[in-house]
């Protein structure tokens, strides 16, 4: 997939493409020192990572302005979201080197993003909500943990109306079944992925511990 193909697929602006091109250049530069993406996926950056991240926006509330991305790693989906929408993204990443990369990438892309260098469990919800100007409207996490553990990390940081968007692989249904042992899931949807027929996006709301 080329940048032009990505623009056609997402209907994003030329400015967004320029931000993502700056991001791609930094990934290629830093990849030599830090494993930001699996090396074999680097040639497929625009489809495997950028489009895979961008598709989450289709399922976020239209008025979303506060987005929280957990375990951001190389910036997926958080920095891609920041490149594509007018809101503010907060990224939580405990790895110092990856956090340094995220900050440099956010500056180079000129996006509205703040990087919190700490473990997710160490994030104070009140401090986070103050920094964000309210509870996150969306919480995302990609390739971070099994769903039942992921909910345990994310739910304390959420507000009553927060939407959770978690990309998952072929075991999404099994993860939902396992999560229901620990959590009440009143609104759980398994949505198709645009980038992988075996993958899906889990959209959750209102979870409560059993």
Write the layout of secondary structure elements.
Layout: H1 3-10, H2 14-30, H3 45-54, E1 66-70, H4 78-84, E2 88-92, H5 96-109, E3 113-116, H6 125-132, E4 138-141, H7 147-154, E5 163-168, H8 172-179, E6 183-184, E7 187-192, E8 200-205, E9 208-209
Parallel strand pairs: 1-2, 1-4, 2-3, 4-5
Antiparallel strand pairs: 5-8, 6-9, 7-8
Helix pairs in contact: 1-3, 2-4, 2-5, 7-8
Supply Rg. Answer: 16 Å
Give helix % range. Answer: 25-40%
CATH superfamily membership: Vaccinia Virus protein VP39
Spatial strand sequence of the major β-sheet: 3-2-1-4-5-8-7
Shape annotation: globular
The total of helices stands at: 8
Helices and strands, in order, run as HHHEHEHEHEHEHEEEE
The oligomerization state is single chain
Which CATH class applies here?
Answer: Alpha Beta
Tally of individual domains? 1
* CATH overall fold name: Rossmann fold
| SS-based class | alpha/beta
Structure summary, number of beta strands: 9
Distance between the termini: 44 Å
User: What is the CATH architecture term?
Assistant: 3-Layer(aba) Sandwich
Can you offer a commentary on this structure?
This protein has 210 residues and is of the alpha/beta class. The chain has one domain (3-209): Rossmann fold (3-Layer(aba) Sandwich), CATH 3.40.50. The chain has 8 helices and 9 strands. It has helices spanning 3-10, 14-30, 45-54, 78-84, 96-109, 125-132, 147-154, 172-179; strands spanning 66-70, 88-92, 113-116, 138-141, 163-168, 183-184, 187-192, 200-205, 208-209. The strands form 2 sheets. Strands 3-2-1-4-5-8-7 form a 7-stranded mixed sheet, with helices on both faces. The model has no long low-confidence stretch (mean pLDDT 93). Belongs to the methyltransferase superfamily. RNA methyltransferase RsmG family. It comes from Ferrovibrio terrae. It is an enzyme of class 2 (transferase).
